[in-house]
């Protein structure tokens, strides 16, 4: 999965408002918060980022 570059430029973490980056995994695509204190990982389902804090997970 690859999101459009312009979309990644405007998407931010709903918790801390830091930029997001793609995980690089093709099996389970995710968006990872780049904020040093946050780091939440948001799922991407059917090509649609689910940017809900309740749906995010903490990195392992």
Automatic annotation (TrEMBL):
Coiled coil regions in record: none
Gene Ontology cellular-component annotations: cytosol
Pfam families: Trm112p
HAMAP family per UniProt: UPF0434
Family indicated by similarity: Belongs to the UPF0434 family.
Name of this chain's protein: UPF0434 protein FHR34_004408
Species: Kitasatospora kifunensis
Lineage per the UniProt record: Bacteria, Bacillati, Actinomycetota, Actinomycetes, Kitasatosporales
